[in-house]
């Protein structure tokens, strides 16, 4: 069996999906806690800043939920190549989130710690380690 179709790779992909959905729901329902992964302080006073903050956290949460659902959809339909590319996209988002944190001074490793793992799983799902296939004339 090719590594790209192995059960452990698919299980890990599904765990990443659950993680994305969980982070997304957390950001939507508990924006003050959701922003803690960026090591930023939420607004403490009600007003326009708090409304903007809650709205942006809902957008962030929806993005994460979408990424998780996209992973599950590709897994459930058996679209391994799509799954691999989605995982690479999720990895890129995690690297970008980490870069944004680094610019703000803290929290980058909350994202950079798992981004390479998602990337490796994406590459495995794309068949990088499946070996070369013999070509027939």
TrEMBL record:
Transmembrane segments: 7-29, 51-73, 85-106, 112-129
Entry keyword annotation includes Iron-sulfur: no
The protein's name in its UniProt record: Integral membrane protein, putative
Pfam families membership: DUF4267 (PF14087)
Key words, A-Z: Membrane, Transmembrane, Transmembrane helix
